[in-house]
Design a protein that fits this description.
The complex is a heterodimer of chains A (about 160) and B (about 950). Chain A has a single domain, classed as OB fold (Dihydrolipoamide Acetyltransferase, E2P). Chain A is globular, with a radius of gyration of 16 Å. By secondary structure, chain A is an alpha+beta fold. Chain A is built from five helices and eleven strands; from the N terminus they run αβββββαββββαββαα. In chain A, the strands form two sheets. A six-stranded mixed sheet of chain A has the order 8-1-2-11-10-9. Chain A is about 15% helix and about 45% strand. In chain A, a hairpin with a 2-residue loop joins strand 1 and strand 2. In chain B, strands 10-14-15-13-12-11 form a six-stranded mixed sheet. Classes of the chains: A alpha+beta (about 160), B alpha+beta (about 950). Chains A and B meet through strand 4 of A and helix 11, strand 17 and strand 18 of B. Chain A: This is Chemotaxis protein CheW. Chain A: Pfam families: CheW.
C-alpha cells in the first residue's frame, strides 16, 4: 500500500492511496471532482442570464439565499452546447471565497479510486483540456478525467490574457 | 501592538481632530474660554497619556504646545502666528502618531525646531506682555525638552485664575482620590521621569473648585478608569503616577466644561461586528420577503398575523442596525475648517467656511468614500473659486469669500452642496483647454452648452489653473472625485455663473446595503433599477400620446417639450431579439445621472421592492451595466442595472463604439427626419460647399508663411508631422501669406488639409442629395439652410494628398431604396462611404466589426446588400461572410467586398463565398457600379420596408 503513495500523493495534498470523486458527465465524457471540493449537488431551477457576461457564465442562480454564479463545464471545455431542455445539474464549488455552480449534463455516483488506476494527463491532449485536468483514471469501461476545479473556474484570467 | 497603544492611537486621533477644529474656532473667537479650556483639556490629556506610555517625543511636543496655550488662558493675545504654530505642532504630532501606528515604536527624532519656537513665543509674551515677574529660565536657549518642562511649573502657577482648575489641582485631586489601583501603585513620589507635569513644587495658589473636582474625579475613577488602569499597570511597570494620569484623563471630561462633548453613553464596537450584523439583517430581510411572497400565494393561512409582526420587527431591526452604521456627515467635515484656514493664509485670501446640516447622518461606508472627495472639492473652491481680496473688491464683492457646505436628506439620498461666491468657471478657458486636449473639435466644443462644458473639469488631467499651486491645479482630483462618487451610486453636478460663483451638488445614497428598486422586465428577464435614479415612468405606445421617434436611428421621446434620449434596455443588454421592442412599446424609465437625463425603454414594469444589494461575482464585475445583484421575494436572482453605466452610453461616440447603437440598425426606419451636421465653407467662387462634419477632424487657421513647398506641393508641419495640403477647388491658389483656413481630415496616421477660402458655418440639416454626374470632387448638391450647396466628396481629395488613398469616380444613380449594411472597422471610411451610398439610394446601416455586423443581421433587419471591408482586426471580412452564409436566411444576400489589394487566393475564397465583387477601397464608381448590378428583384419582397 505505502509504495503506491508516490509523487502523485505528494503532488496533490490530501490524496491518499485511494481518493473519492464525485463523477459527472458532460457531452458523454466522464469527469471526476475530488469530493472534498464539492459542497453541493443540486438541480438548476431557474437561471438568470447575465447579458454581456463571458461565455462560460450561463447565469446566476439562487442557492438557499446565496447568489451562485453558474459556469457551464461544456463551455469551459469548448464542447458544443447541449441541446434541448431537461434538468440541469450543477455541482456547488467554492472558489476564492465565492460560490460557483458548475453546470454539467448529469451527476453520477461517488467513486473511490485507487492510485494504481491513475495516469498523468496524456501529452497530446488539447491544451485547454490539459490545463483543466489533474490526470485520468482508467475505469473498467471508460476513462474518468480528474478535473482541476480551480483551473476550471479560473477562465477569467485566461480570457483576459488571451 | 498592544491594545493599550491602539486605544491610545484611536483616542488621540479623535482628540487631535477636535483640537484642530476648536483651535480655528478659537482663533476667531479668542474670548471664548469654553473653547480654550476644551482645547487645553484635550491637549493636556494627550500629553498625559504620552507620558504615561513612555512616548517622550510626543509628550514634549504636546507639553510645549500646552504651555503656549496656557498663555492664552492667561489672557495673552491670540495671534495668527501662535495658532499656526500650534497647528503645526499638532501636525507633527499626527505624523509621529502615524509612524507609531505603523511600527508601534515612537520614531526617533528631535522636534527642537517647533519646541524652541513654541517656547520662544511663550516666553516672549511673558516679557512683553506680562507685568508679572518674568520667569527666569524662560528665554532658555536650550530647546531640549528638559528645561522647558522645568519651566512649566511657574507658568502653571501663574496661570491659575480664580475658577480655573489647574493641572496640578487635578493631579492632586487624583492622587488623593482612593483609586482602585491604590493597592498596587504607590502614590507617586515626585516622578523620576521629568517628562511629567506635576513635579514637586506645588505651591500653587489653588483656588476653590478643587474639592468639587475631587469628588467627581473620585466617582469617575471608580467606574471607568478601573479597567484601563489595570491594563496599563501590566503594560508598564514604571513606578509613575499612572493611575493619576489615567484618572486625570477622564477627570477633565467629568469636571471640565460641558459644551461640545455630548454626554450620551457610548461604547466602541468593532466595525466588523456591525458589518456582520448588517449582513445578517440583510439575510433576514430577504427571508422575510420570501415568506411574504409565500403568504401572498396562500390566502387563508394562519401565518398572516405573526408574519406581519415579523415583518414589522424586521423592518425595525433593519432600521436600528442601519442607525448603528450611521454617522453625522460632520465627522467628514471636521478637518475642513482647518483646511480652509491654512489655505486662506497660504493663498492670501479671506475665506469663510459656512457649514450647514453637519448632523445629517449617513452610512459610514458612504462617509468613508466621500471624505476625501469633499476635502478636495473644498480645496478646489478655495483655490480656484474664491478670488483674492483685491479681485473681489474690484468685482464689487466683499473681501471675504464664502464657501458654503450644506447637507440635507432628500428622499432616499443625501444631497451635499458645495458652493462658493467666487469667480465661477471660466468657460472660455475650459473650451480652449478641451480643444487643446483633443476632447473634441473646435466646432463641436463651440456648440456645447455651458453645462456640457462644465463637465470637462471632471476629465482626467484637466486643469485650467494658470499656475500649478501647492493647493491644486495638479491636474489630479476632479476626475477622481467624480469616480469615487459614482462608485457609490452618487452623482456630481456643477452649476456656475461666471463672476458669481460655482455650486457643486453631490447626491449620494444613504446606504449601499439596502435600496429601494424598481423591478422591470426586458427581454424575458427581470432587472432592478435603483429607485434613486428613477424620476418617472412613461408608457409609450405607437400612436399614443407618448411615442418614440428617431433621429438618425437613435430613439428619442418628446416629454413635456423636451427631447429625451432613449436607451432601449434590450439593446444595451445585447439581448437576442432586441428587435422585439422595435415597435417601441413599453415603458420609459426616465432617469437622471448628473445633469444628463435619459430614458431606459423596458418591456414592462412590476413594482418597487426593497432589495439587498449583493456584490457581483468577481468574474462579472467588469460589466459596467450592473452594479450588483439581488434575490427577490420570489427567490429569483435579478441583476441591478447601474444607471451610471447606462448613462455613459447615452453620450455619443461611446455609444457607437461600445454598444453598437447606430450599428444595430433602426437607422433605416425614418430617413426623412435624418439630419446631418455639415460644415459649410466657401472655396473658389461664391458657391457654398459642405462636408459632413463627422468626417472633419478639426478646423485650423494657419499662417500661410508656414506652408512649405516640397516638389511643388504644399505641406505644413502639423502636430509633429508633415501634412499635405490640397486646394478644395482647382481655381483657388493656396495663399503665400496671410492666414489660410484649413479643414483637416485624418484617418489613423494619415492626415490632409483641405485649403478653403473661408469657413462659413456649421449647420444641422436634412441631407437630401441630388447627385451630379461627372464631378468626382462632389457627391452632389443639396439644399442646406435654403441655399444650394455642393456636397464635397472627400474621397476625391484623399488620393491627391496620399497616393495610397486611391482615386474615386462619379456615382451613378440608383433608383430603388434598398437597405445596405456597411461593415468597416475604420470610422472614417464608414463616415465617408455612408453619404456616398445614401446618395446612391441605399438605406445604410453601419457596423464597425464582424461581431457588430452579425448582431445587426441577427436583429432581423432587412438587409439587401452587404458591403464589407476584408481587412479588419479580429474576425476579418471573409470570416464575416462565412458566418453570414451559414445562416439560411442570408444564404444568398449579395456581398461586395472592399479591399486594398486582391490576390488570386483571395479571389478564390471570394468566389466560394459567393462574394459578388471585389472593389478597391476608394473606387467609388466601381462600388456604385457593382451595387447597380445587383438584381433589383431581390428587394421586392422587402418593398414595404421603404
Amino acid at each position: 500500500m505505502t509504495p503506491a503513495m508516490t509523487h502523485a500523493a505528494g503532488a496533490e495534498p490530501g490524496v491518499e492511496d485511494a481518493s473519492e470523486y464525485v463523477t459527472l458527465t458532460a457531452s458523454d465524457q466522464t469527469f471526476g471532482i475530488g469530493i472534498e471540493r464539492v459542497q453541493d449537488v443540486f438541480v438548476v431551477a431557474s437561471l438568470t442570464s447575465v447579458p454581456t457576461a463571458p461565455g462560460e457564465i450561463v447565469g446566476l442562480l439562487n442557492l438557499r439565499g446565496r447568489v451562485v454564479t453558474a459556469v457551464d463545464l461544456r463551455r469551459c471545455l469548448g464542447l458544443p452546447d447541449r441541446n434541448g431542455g431537461g434538468e440541469l445539474m450543477a455541482i456547488g464549488l467554492e472558489h476564492k471565497g465565492e460560490a460557483y455552480g458548475l453546470v454539467v449534463d448529469a451527476v453520477g455516483e461517488v467513486l473511490k479510486l485507487r492510485q494504481e488506476t491513475r495516469e498523468a494527463t496524456p501529452v497530446h491532449l488539447n491544451a485547454r483540456w490539459g490545463q483543466l485536468m489533474h490526470g485520468v483514471h482508467r475505469l473498467g469501461d471508460r476513462l474518468l478525467i480528474v478535473l482541476d476545479a480551480d483551473a476550471v473556474l479560473a477562465f477569467d484570467q485566461d480570457a483576459r490574457a488571451a | 501592538m498592544d491594545d493599550l497603544l491602539r486605544e491610545f492611537l484611536t483616542e488621540t486621533g479623535e482628540h487631535l481632530d477636535t483640537v484642530d477644529v476648536e483651535l480655528v474656532r478659537f482663533e476667531q473667537d479668542p474670548n471664548n474660554e469654553k473653547i480654550l479650556s476644551n482645547i487645553f483639556r484635550l491637549v493636556h490629556t494627550i500629553k498625559g497619556t504620552c507620558g504615561f506610555l513612555g512616548l517622550p517625543r510626543l509628550e514634549s511636543l504636546a507639553h510645549a504646545a500646552e504651555t503656549l496655550m496656557g498663555r492664552f488662558r492667561d489672557g495673552f493675545p491670540v495671534t495668527t502666528n501662535a495658532v499656526s504654530l500650534i497647528l503645526a505642532t499638532l501636525d507633527r504630532i499626527k505624523e509621529i502618531l502615524a509612524e507609531l501606528e505603523r511600527t508601534a515604536v515612537e520614531p526617533e527624532g528631535e522636534d527642537v525646531d517647533l519646541i524652541g519656537e513654541l517656547e520662544r513665543m511663550s516666553s516672549l509674551e511673558a516679557d512683553v506682555l506680562l507685568a508679572e515677574a518674568a520667569p527666569a529660565p524662560s528665554a532658555a536657549p536650550a530647546p531640549a525638552p528638559k528645561p522647558e518642562i522645568l519651566k512649566l511649573p511657574d507658568i502653571v502657577e501663574r496661570e491659575a485664575k480664580p475658577g480655573e482648575v489647574t493641572l496640578d489641582d487635578l493631579e492632586r485631586a487624583f492622587l488623593e482620590a482612593p483609586g482602585p489601583d491604590e493597592d498596587f501603585t504607590a502614590p507617586p513620589p515626585p516622578p523620576p521621569v521629568a517628562a511629567k507635569a506635576p513635579p514637586a513644587p506645588m505651591p500653587t495658589p489653588v483656588p476653590a473648585p478643587a474639592p468639587q473636582v475631587e469628588a467627581k474625579a473620585e466617582a469617575k475613577a471608580e467606574t471607568k478608569v478601573e479597567a484601563k488602569v489595570e491594563a496599563k499597570a501590566e503594560a508598564k511597570p514604571e513606578p509613575r503616577g499612572r493611575n493619576a494620569q489615567a484618572a486625570e484623563k477622564e477627570a477633565p471630561e467629568g469636571g471640565g466644561s460641558s459644551d461640545s462633548v455630548s454626554k450620551v453613553q457610548t461604547i466602541r464596537v468593532n466595525v466588523d461586528t456591525l458589518e456582520h450584523l448588517m449582513t445578517m439583517v440583510s439575510e433576514l430581510v430577504l427571508t422575510r420577503n420570501q415568506l411574504l411572497e409565500i403568504a401572498r400565494r396562500h390566502e387563508d393561512n394562519g401565518f398572516k398575523v405573526p408574519l406581519q409582526r415579523l415583518s414589522h420587527v424586521t423592518a425595525e431591526l433593519q432600521e436600528g442596525v442601519m442607525k448603528t452604521r450611521m454617522q453625522p456627515i460632520g465627522t467628514a467635515w471636521q478637518k475642513l475648517p482647518r483646511v480652509i484656514r491654512d489655505l486662506s493664509s497660504e493663498l492670501d485670501k479671506k475665506i469663510e467656511l459656512v457649514m450647514q446640516g453637519a448632523d445629517t447622518e449617513l452610512d459610514r461606508q458612504v462617509l468613508e468614500v466621500i471624505k476625501d472627495p469633499l476635502t478636495h472639492m473644498i480645496r478646489n473652491s478655495a483655490d480656484h473659486g474664491i478670488e483674492t481680496p483685491a479681485e473681489r473688491r474690484t468685482a464689487g464683492k466683499s473681501e471675504r469669500g464664502t464657501i458654503r457646505l450644506n447637507a440635507y436628506h432628500e428622499g432616499g439620498s443625501i444631497t451635499i452642496e458645495i458652493s462658493d461666491d467666487g469667480k465661477g468657471l471660466n468657460f472660455g478657458a475650459i473650451r480652449k483647454k478641451a480643444v487643446d486636449r483633443g476632447l473634441g473639435t473646435e466646432a463641436e466644443i463651440e456648440r456645447m452648452s455651458e453645462v456640457q462644458i462644465a463637465k470637462f473639469i471632471f476629465h482626467p488631467g484637466f486643469s485650467t489653473a494658470k499656475a500649478v499651486t501647492a493647493v491644486s491645479g495638479r491636474g489630479v482630483g476632479m476626475d477622481v472625485v467624480k469616480t469615487n462618487i459614482e462608485l457609490i451610486g452618487g452623482t456630481v453636478d456643477i452649476r456656475s455663473d461666471e463672476g458669481k460663483g460655482t455650486t457643486f451638488t453631490i447626491k449620494i445614497p444613504l446606504t449601499l446595503a439596502i435600496v429601494a428598486a424598481l423591478i422591470v422586465a426586458a427581454g424575458n428577464q427581470r432587472y432592478a433599477i435603483p429607485q434613486v435614479a428613477v424620476l418617472e415612468l412613461v408608457r409609450v405606445k405607437k400612436g399614443a400620446d407618448h411615442q418614440i421617434e428617431r433621429i438618425n436611428g437613435s430613439p428619442v421621446l418628446r416629454l413635456r417639450d423636451r427631447l429625451l434620449p432613449i436607451v432601449p434596455a434590450g439593446k444595451v443588454l445585447g439581448l437576442d431579439g432586441a428587435d422585439a421592442n422595435a415597435g417601441d412599446e413599453g415603458f420609459v424609465v426616465v432617469s437622471q445621472v448628473g445633469r444628463q437625463r435619459f430614458g431606459i425603454l423596458v418591456d414592462g414594469v412590476f413594482h418597487t421592492e426593497e432589495i439587498v444589494v449583493k456584490p457581483m461575482s468577481t468574474k462579472l464585475r467588469h460589466i459596467p451595466l450592473f452594479s450588483g445583484n439581488t434575490i427577490l421575494g420570489d427567490g429569483a436572482v435579478v441583476l441591478i442595472i447601474d444607471p451610471n453605466g447606462v448613462a455613459k452610453m447615452v453620450g455619443s461616440g461611446t455609444a457607437e463604439q461600445q454598444y453598437g447603437f447606430e450599428d444595430t440598425g433602426e437607422a433605416a426606419e425614418s430617413d426623412e427626419q435624418e439630419t446631418v451636421t455639415l460644415l459649410v465653407f466657401r472655396s473658389g467662387g461664391q458657391s457654398l460647399k459642405a462636408v459632413p462634419l463627422s468626417l472633419v477632424t478639426r478646423l485650423e487657421e494657419i499662417d500661410a508663411g508656414k506652408i512649405e513647398w516640397v516638389g511643388g506641393r504644399p505641406l505644413i508641419q502639423y502636430r509633429g508631422k508633415l501634412m499635405p495640403l490640397v486646394p478644395a477647388d482647382p481655381s483657388i491658389a493656396i495663399k503665400r501669406e496671410g492666414s489660410q483656413a484649413l479643414v483637416v481630415f485624418s484617418d489613423g496616421e494619415r492626415a490632409m488639409g483641405l485649403a478653403v477660402d473661408e469657413i462659413v458655418d456649421i449647420v444641422d440639416d436634412v441631407l437630401d442629395i441630388e447627385l451630379v454626374a461627372d464631378r468626382s470632387d462632389l457627391v452632389g448638391s443639396a439644399v442646406v439652410r435654403g441655399r444650394a450647396t455642393e456636397i464635397v466628396n472627400v474621397a476625391h481629395y484623399l488620393p491627391l494628398a496620399h497616393e495610397d488613398w486611391t482615386r474615386g469616380g462619379p456615382p451613378k444613380m440608383a433608383s430603388f431604396s434598398r437597405s445596405l449594411l456597411l461593415v468597416d472597422d475604420s470610422a472614417f471610411f464608414r463616415d465617408m462611404l455612408t453619404p456616398v451610398l445614401k446618395a446612391a439610394g441605399f438605406k445604410v446601416m453601419v457596423a464597425g466589426s464582424t461581431e457588430e455586423a452579425l448582431q445587426v443581421l441577427s436583429a432581423d433587419k432587412r438587409i439587401d446588400v452587404i458591403v464589407t471591408d476584408i481587412e479588419m482586426p479580429g474576425r476579418d471580412g471573409f470570416a464575416f461572410v462565412e458566418a453570414v452564409r451559414a445562416q439560411a436566411r442570408l444564404h444568398d444576400v449579395p456581398v461586395i467586398a472592399l479591399s486594398a489589394g486582391v490576390d488570386a487566393q483571395a479571389l478564390e475564397r471570394a468566389r466560394r463565398l459567393q462574394i459578388k465583387e471585389f472593389v478597391a477601397k476608394f473606387d467609388r464608381s466601381g462600388l456604385i457600379a457593382a451595387l447597380g448590378e445587383i438584381p433589383e428583384a431581390r428587394i421586392e419582397h422587402y418593398g414595404e420596408a421603404a
